[in-house]
Design brief:
Helices cover 53% and strands 10% of the residues. The protein is α/β, with parallel strands linked by helices. It has one domain.
Length: 296
């Protein structure tokens, strides 16, 4: 999330920059680019800011501590996210009260790929023996595939099973894929999608309200979109995007195989393709290809 303050650099004045978006959509790479130019005090990164998000993070963390069904790495991360969200909200309120310049950035990703990536992010909780298990074990791959399909189905009503890691993923899919656009992004910032305009010859959408500028990009547009965001904030060509290290992670080969073979019911793929943010950011042809890619 947000790093501890480091050595000050000789930098010009910058706006308060908030990267407020789903996880697994490039926020770390964007933060790394901007951190080369912006004081850390002026650079925030959060996956949620609403009261509902903060309460949910704390509830999951407390449950994990109480029942011992989450490893410390996971419940401490949840507590950290809640604390950071409160700190960011305080900074935003102060900046708005003072009329200070603020830039709020959100990246979005097609929801099934997003949820699949989050499942692998929690692989050590789902399968505590991994990576000691051979990565080629077929039953491990089938189990993770079943978890992904269950989470995709359960996210719409947030149906919980009592299995803490699976339930954490279901809540995450429900809050950060199914409901994030309306509640976290539009709702928290009091926005309407009609406010945004596609920037000509650009991969970005933009809206300005008083001293706050909102920028939206798509994960699928890759490093070029991140460069455009950074250039818009810094008003000059930015440093290069850091390589995503997912290819070097222990689960890389398992993730690659499962992503290639994963198929879900076509009705479910179509339901995800109809999510409001998908309908807003992706063309009809792109949404049709999305259903063809994942559905059967």
């Amino acid at each position: 999330m947000n790093d501890m303050p480091g050595p000050r650099r000789e930098l010009r004045q910058t706006p308060l920059v908030l990267i407020h978006q789903m996880g697994k959509v490039g926020s770390q790479a964007l933060q790394a680019m901007l951190r080369e130019e912006i004081w850390l005090d002026y650079l925030r990164r959060d996956h949620g800011l609403t009261d509902k998000f903060i309460l949910s993070m704390r509830a999951m963390a407390a449950e994990g501590r109480r029942n011992g069904n989450l490893i410390p790495e996971h419940y401490l991360s949840l507590e950290f996210q809640a604390n950071e969200a409160e700190a960011t909200n305080s900074k935003l309120q102060a900046a708005n009260a003072n009329g200070d310049e603020v830039v709020i950035v959100a990246g979005f990703r097609e929801p099934i790929g997003f949820i699949l990536s989050n499942v692998f992010q929690l692989l050590s909780a789902l399968v505590p023996a991994y990576p000691a298990l051979p990565a080629a074990m077929g039953h491990l791959e089938s189990y993770i595939e079943a978890v992904v399909i269950h989470v995709l189905e359960a996210a719409w009503q947030c149906d919980l099973t009592g299995n803490a890691p699976v339930d954490m993923l279901t809540r995450m899919a429900s809050e950060r894929a199914v409901g994030w656009w309306d509640h976290e992004w539009l709702g928290h910032h009091n926005l309407s999608w009609r406010d945004f305009e596609k920037v000509p010859d650009s991969k970005l959408w933009r809206f300005k309200r008083e001293s706050t500028t909102f920028l939206v990009y798509r994960f699928e547009d890759g490093s070029a979109a991140l460069q455009e965001v950074a250039n818009s904030i810094l008003l000059k060509p930015s440093v290069n995007v850091e390589e995503n290290h997912s290819k070097t992670k222990l689960y890389a080969e398992l993730y690659k195989r499962l992503k290639a073979r994963l198929r879900i019911p076509e009705r479910l793929a179509a339901r995800y393709a109809s999510l409001p943010y998908v309908a807003c950011l992706y063309s009809c042809d792109e949404r049709d290809r999305f259903v063809d890619r994942w559905g059967e």
